[in-house]
Amino acid sequence: MIGRTFLLVVCVAACGFRSRPLSGDGASSAPDSSVKEPPVTCGDLMCAPNATCTTTGAAACKCSSGYTGDGLTCSDLDECATANGGCAAACMNTAGSFECYAPATCADVKAHVPAATDGVYTLYLGGNASKPWTAYCAHMATTPLEYLSLTGANYAQYTAGGGSPGMDVKTTYTKVRFNPATLKIDISDRAYATSQGMLNHSASGTMVTSMPFGVAMDCRLANSKAGVALIDLTATAFALTGQAAFAEGGNIANSSAVLASNNQRATINGGGFCGWAAPVGAPNNPFNGNVTNGALLGVVYAP
Question: What are the φ/ψ torsions at residue 217 (nearest 5 degrees)?
């Protein structure tokens, strides 16, 4: 009897019986494939701040207009990076959108791009996108100012001799201050000018060391016009209004103004005893800092 019991135990251990869960009635049970997970709802999703949950079909997060991503994360879309945002002039990207604008002044540039630094920018006359011009914007960190960058010969000279002994005073300009609202050049602004020479005006003891833009002067003799000024605006979108933009002044004066290159170049001669040629409105003795209201030389838009 003991031998039979041992044999039964061995058989049970070796035969590897497996158990199966039983149902309540003792029958085995299997997973029910007909039971489905509940559908995902917007309440189950955590969409990005610049996204919304859509319920067209299955609930899903979608980035708002002006943003890109999968809805769970969204980043701003820079519309200006593609075809300039379709803008005719300048394009400024904003959060979720963009703005087309046409800056008329350097201050307009700074208003749209606060971090803008001194340099060359495209401005638009009167804010008109069809009238671009190139400006050098200075003092962008404080009060922006517009300048025209010049090429070629641009200088004003008081030629020494006669009643004004010394050396020719020649002031050379690489940029001139320009007011786009009035279309006038400030002939007194010498921020981008260098001067050489010095003379004694009419032997009076008044020493001349610099000349305003577009002024030609001498004090040699009656009707002399050895003073010379050259203007070259060919690198700009502007031209002089004509010979009438200049007038002569002083004692026994003489002058001439010859324009070329569609009025973008001018050669001005002037002098006398003492006399000069200068933009209309210049005061007596237009040298050094004597020109206080310098926005005198008018130009026209000539792209």
Answer: -150, 150
